[in-house]
Amino acid sequence: MKLLIQVAVFYFFYKIGVVLQSTLEIPVPGSIIGMVLLLVLLLTGLVKERYLHGGANLLLFYLPLFFVPATVGVMNHFRFLSKTEGLIMLLALLVGTIMVLVSSGLVAQKTAASVDNKAEATGVMDDE
Amino acid sequence: MMNSWFGILFILITYLVFLAMRHVYNRFRMPLLNPVATTTLLIIVGLLLTDLSYDTYMLGGWWIQELLGPAVVALAYPLYHQRTKILRYRIPLIAGLFSGIVVGMVTGFIYVKVANLSSMYASSFLPKSVTSPIAMEIADLTGGLPSLAAALVILSGIIGALFGPGLMRLLGITHYLGIGVGLGCAAHGIGTAKAMEYGEEEAAFSSISMTLSALLYALILPVAIHYLL
């Protein structure tokens, strides 16, 4: 029961985000606006971490499941994607996605190493 | 009445197939058996065999999809827990994000130019690395097909989750920052779901990358399409 109430609170944040998105025409989905809103409340201490902890864990445990209905929608585009033009597009998608993943991952990791080195050199380690 | 039975049936089927596929995945631990991909495949095959449409499936699917919103809100938790690390690594985060966006846009524009795509298809393809609601809006705004844009976004997410882990291991991307930023930039929400399997740090960096890249794409891409297509 407590978990259900917590999930309802997350849903409420999501709906607030949707309303904010459409009224202020922010170019970010309502769910992400709701996430930022909750994060601000957590950071300012207005919402205590323990209030919604269980609900957050439950929702995140099933996060992949919630993508399934959208992913099934790909079936409506099989006709185009199985034509030559569509197959080339799939190939471009594969190559492009992998290039983005590898380049952003490598750059982030390499830059992180230099941050670590600098922290060691100056002796500043603000870790836990 | 019939419709609500259909709805309940599809909710149950989706949930049970997902649990079974997650179980299979946990047993074999192969990235290619990603539960989102395998569950989707089984449901599509089932729908094709029974000659049911996607719209009929969505009588139940809609309720499951409705929970995606609150689950994305819940990503505030890993971000909150990892706030000190995010602040400490803000420079690598921005650097990784920036290179991901540049590479994504440059390769995207090269492809649509070389393949000589009609602007309708080009505008559906270019927002491929952005979370689907945004991709659909960008496509709509720039004369693309929102539903095709959503399908391509989802496919890029699946591609990232299926092939990302092996590739990153191969290239020595093992730091949570590299894994998180890579998955978040390339494979948005589905990538973030994958990042959660690694740990909370990866999940936090993946969701912040997904968020910032959606924002930047939404601001830059419509302008770029306007001038370059």
Commentary on this structure:
The complex is a heterodimer of chains A (128) and B (229). Chain A has 128 residues and is an all-alpha fold. Chain A is 78% helix and 0% strand. Chain A contains 6 helices and no strands. The longest helix of chain A has 39 residues, at 84-122. Chain A is extended, with a radius of gyration of 21 Å. The model of chain A has no long low-confidence stretch (mean pLDDT 91). Chain B is built from 12 helices and no strands. In chain B, helix 1 crosses helix 3, helix 9 (132-141) packs parallel to helix 12 and helix 11 crosses helix 12 (200-228). The longest helix of chain B has 29 residues, at 200-228. The mean pLDDT of chain B is 93. At the A-B interface, helix 1, helix 2, helix 3, helix 4 and helix 6 of A face helix 1, helix 2, helix 3, helix 4 and helix 5 of B.
What's the short version?
The complex is a heterodimer of chains A (about 130) and B (about 230). With about 130 residues, chain A is mainly α.
The general outline of chain B is globular
Helical percent range of chain B? over 70%
Provide the β-strand percentage band of chain B: under 5%
The whole-angstrom Rg of chain B is 18 Å
Instruction: Work out the oligomeric state of the chains in this entry.
Output: heterodimer
Number of strands of chain B: 0
Order of helices and strands of chain A: HHHHHH
Radius of gyration of chain A: 21 Å
Proportion of beta-strand residues of chain A: under 5%
Sum up the overall morphology of chain A in one term: extended
- What is the β-strand count of chain A? 0
End-to-end C-alpha gap of chain B: 49 Å
Low-confidence stretches of chain B: none
Count helical runs of chain B: 12
The DSSP helix count of chain A reads 6
* Share in helix of chain A: over 70%
